[in-house]
Specification:
alpha+beta, 96 residues, globular, 5-stranded antiparallel beta sheet
Length: 96
């Protein structure tokens, strides 16, 4: 199963602790998880990949997951980002 969700950020998303926690949360799942921002596609499970990420408040990013637990992965990561105050909620959902 594949799932992709677009979010608009409510605050800057570039702090080391936020990125580290996101990588830890993503690694709970078997699915392949990407964050798409502008022309970048970043492996959310890799801190080396995600640490280059600098997204400002008001920008939109997509999170894509592909695998047997893709829907649970996206839902969990969405909840994590909402809990941290980084996003308000889903702006667009696509399931394949």
């Amino acid at each position: 199963m594949k799932k992709e969700v677009a979010f608009t950020l409510t605050q800057d998303f570039n702090y080391h602790d936020q990125l580290t926690q996101l990588v830890q949360e993503a690694n709970r799942f078997n699915s392949y998880i990407l964050m798409k921002y502008k022309n970048l596609q970043i492996n959310v499970k890799s801190f080396l990949s995600i640490r280059i990420l600098r997204i400002s408040k008001g920008e939109t990013l997509n999170i894509f997951a592909d695998g047997n637990d893709a829907e649970r992965a996206i839902d969990h990561i969405s909840s994590f980002l909402i809990k941290k105050g980084i996003i308000l909620g889903e702006s667009n959902v696509s399931k394949n």
